[in-house]
Design brief:
Elements: H1 2-56, H2 58-61, H3 64-96, E1 104-106, H4 108-122, H5 124-127, E2 130-134, E3 141-143, H6 145-162, E4 169-175, E5 181-187, H7 210-215, H8 222-232, E6 236-242, E7 246-254
Parallel strand pairs: 2-4
Antiparallel strand pairs: 1-3, 4-5, 5-7, 6-7
Helix pairs in contact: 1-3, 3-8, 4-6, 6-8
The structure holds adenosine-5'-diphosphate.
Length: about 260
């Protein structure tokens, strides 16, 4: 009909305007990300530079107590920069592989157990709070072992960091009801997260409390890395939290066909 013919150009115009807006939004996000990453690196770098100058001054540099305190801070700041650069590199690698899903069967239960053992060994006190519930003989998931290790490590570390010392961190890995997925869940009894923050937690550099994140050595990239890894594995991520009670992160991962 003639009506359809006259409408057609408008719909194409709307579509291209819509696409243009989407492209602009992506460019903006990219620019913001570079600005944020640079700022995150500049802050510790400025601190290190300041301490070098102070130590260069004989008044401070020759006092052993001041010297060792400043060197300690410099070591912490460089650790922070190293963690940030590592996470940035992982993020760019994972983004590059976004459309290239993993192919190999991976024993995720073993990865979770190894991560738990590592944390129990490296953080004696808080490590003792970890309780594990893993079903025996779970099927493999189709995955990337390195990325799944990173995922388990980030989620468990967050529960240890943002949970309360002396309260349990419950790690569970079970089959979903249909058996098509594995359900990995980590629950802590920390301060929890207010509902308005929940949808934004996987944004790069989004933190509920930046002071606290910095204090515990966070980069602000952990959950964004986890979200990318879950998406690449065609999985599902859910974060549930109650302020004053604690947080549970659940991840579903498709199992490998037998
Ligand atoms: P970070 O390096 O800051 O820990 P993440 O991306 O891992 O960054 O997490 C983003 C933010 O989400 C954290 O800064 C913290 O505010 C919040 N968060 C993550 N996990 C938890 C948790 N288990 N309990 C409370 N808050 C959490």
């Amino acid at each position: 009909s003639t009506q359809a013919k006259t409408l057609f150009p408008y719909t194409t115009l709307f579509r291209s305007l819509h696409e243009l807006t989407a492209i602009r939004a992506m460019e903006r996000m990219r620019a913001d990300f570079v600005a944020n990453a640079s700022h995150e690196l500049l802050t510790p770098l400025a601190a290190v530079k300041g301490f070098i100058e102070t130590l260069d001054d004989p008044a401070a540099g020759e006092d052993p107590a001041t010297r060792s305190r400043f060197l300690g801070i410099m070591a912490k700041e460089t650790d922070r920069m190293q963690a940030l650069v590592r996470d940035l590199m992982s993020l760019s690698r994972i983004e590059a592989e976004k459309y290239d899903p993993p192919q190999t069967p991976v024993d995720f239960a073993q990865i979770v157990m190894e991560t738990v053992d590592q944390l129990r060994n490296s953080q004696k006190d808080r490590g003792a709070d970890i309780a594990v519930d893993i079903t025996a003989d779970l099927p493999a998931v189709i995955g990337d072992a390195g990325q799944l290790r990173q995922l388990a490590n980030n989620i468990l570390n967050n529960a240890m960091k943002y949970g309360k010392d002396g309260t349990p961190v419950l790690v569970s890995l079970v089959s979903s009801r249909s058996g098509a997925m594995l359900n990995f869940a980590v629950a802590d009894e920390g301060d929890g997260i207010a509902p308005e923050h929940l949808p934004r937690l996987t944004e790069r550099f989004y933190r509920v409390d930046s002071g606290r994140s910095r204090l515990v050595g966070g980069t602000g990239l952990g959950l964004s890395l986890v979200k990318h890894i879950v998406d690449r594995h065609r999985g599902h991520l859910e974060i549930r939290s109650t302020v004053g009670k604690g947080t549970t992160v659940s991840i579903l991962l498709p199992v490998s066909p037998a």
